[in-house]
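Quick start: what a row looks like.
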Amino acid sequence: MRLCSLICFVTLAACRTTPMPLPPVTPTLEQRFATWEAAGPTGDEAHRARLEALVKTLRAELSRRGSLDLLFVCTHNSRRSHMGQLLAAVAARRVGVRVRTFSAGTEATAFNSRAAAALARAGFDITTPDTGTNPHSQVRWATGEPPAEVFSKTLDDPSLPPSGFVAVMTCSQADAACPFVKGASARVSVPYEDPKVSDGTPDEARTYDARVEQIGRDLAWVFRQLAS
């Protein structure tokens, strides 16, 4: 009887301390990220130094807190910050780093349809039930999990963590406008060129796909470093 009680106690303790594995990402996204990871991070020496600074910051946060909240910021929260939020969620899931990802802007506009289309081409399942000026999209990247609700918001939106998060500034304009992000435990600048420069041109889809690939490659590398 005592032995049975001891076995039950040990089993229950293991269940409390060992988190259940997260469902894997979809095969399409896994294949895309495997290709990006093999290619390595993008950019010149200065850009890679920013990525290394991000890794260092996130590693320190993981060591201190045991988990990560990551907020991607661009001016209008319409393109690059959403790409960062969603691509980081997949990059982290693949290597077993537990993180919550968010995005916001200094202004609220809408989750740009061109950015959503590029992310869908990369393998995300994106549906947008409503058609208002700032519609809420439902985004999935793993089988068997509820979708994430994605929409444009400002830094004071109640859906965001109030404190203890790392702010990643994905555009130079937001970086300059927000030298201090309230509630952030750390702030790292990793700017990317806005794909809207190609809006309405024959290069539109190609530019958006390239930006998704660039951010995806970088974040695949960042989270692989964290997991190693």
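That is the whole record. The CA atoms of residues 10 and 16 lie 10 Å apart. Residues 204-227 form the longest helix (24 residues).
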